[in-house]
Design a protein that fits this description.
There is one protein chain. This protein is mainly α and about 130 residues long. The chain has one domain. Helix content is about 65%, strand content about 0%. It is built from 5 helices and no strands. It has helices at about 15-35, 45-50, 55-80, 85-110, 120-130. Helix 1 (about 15-35) runs antiparallel to helix 4 and helix 3 (about 55-80) packs antiparallel against helix 4 (about 85-110). The longest helix has 26 residues, at about 55-80.
C-alpha cells in the first residue's frame, strides 16, 4: 500500500485538517461507546464527509471511518442474532481500536490510510455516498 502524504492544510471548517481527522476517528469511537446511541457512531464522519468541501484527505478518512463503524454495526447485529459468537466481540473491538489509533496517527501526519480488511465495504460506501 503506497503512502500518500498531503501538505499541511486547513479544512473547510477553518481548522487544520489533521484536527478534523482526529474528530472523525475519535469522535465516532467515543460515540460508539455510549450504549443507547452507539448505532449512530458513523454519524460524525458522515456529517463531516458532507460538510467538508476543501480537503480530500478529510473526506478519505471520513469514508474509511464510515466503513469501519458500519462494519461495527453489522458485527453487532450478527452477535445479537448469534449470541454463541459473542466471544468474538472483544477480539473485534480490540482490532477496531488498533485500526482507529493507526488511522488517526496517519491522519495526524497528513497521510491517507486504507483500513485493511474492509476495502470492499469502503468501495461500496464510497460509490454509494459520492455519486
Amino acid at each position: 500500500m503506497k503512502r500518500v502524504k498531503h501538505t499541511p492544510h486547513k479544512s473547510s471548517f477553518g481548522v487544520n485538517a489533521n484536527i478534523v481527522i482526529l474528530i472523525v476517528w475519535f469522535g465516532a469511537f467515543i460515540l460508539s461507546l455510549i450504549e443507547p446511541i452507539s448505532f449512530l457512531s458513523f454519524s460524525i464522519p458522515f456529517i463531516i464527509l458532507f460538510m467538508e468541501t476543501e480537503s480530500s484527505l478529510v473526506k478519505q478518512h471520513a469514508i474509511q471511518a464510515i466503513s469501519l463503524f458500519f462494519f461495527n454495526i453489522l458485527a453487532t447485529l450478527f452477535i445479537f442474532i448469534f449470541p454463541f459468537f459473542s466471544f468474538i466481540f472483544w477480539i473485534v473491538a480490540i482490532i477496531e481500536l488498533a485500526l482507529i489509533v493507526v488511522a488517526a496517527q496517519r491522519g495526524w501526519d497528513y497521510q491517507e490510510y486504507d483500513l485493511p480488511f474492509i476495502q470492499p465495504l469502503t468501495r461500496i460506501v464510497k460509490k454509494f455516498l459520492l455519486r
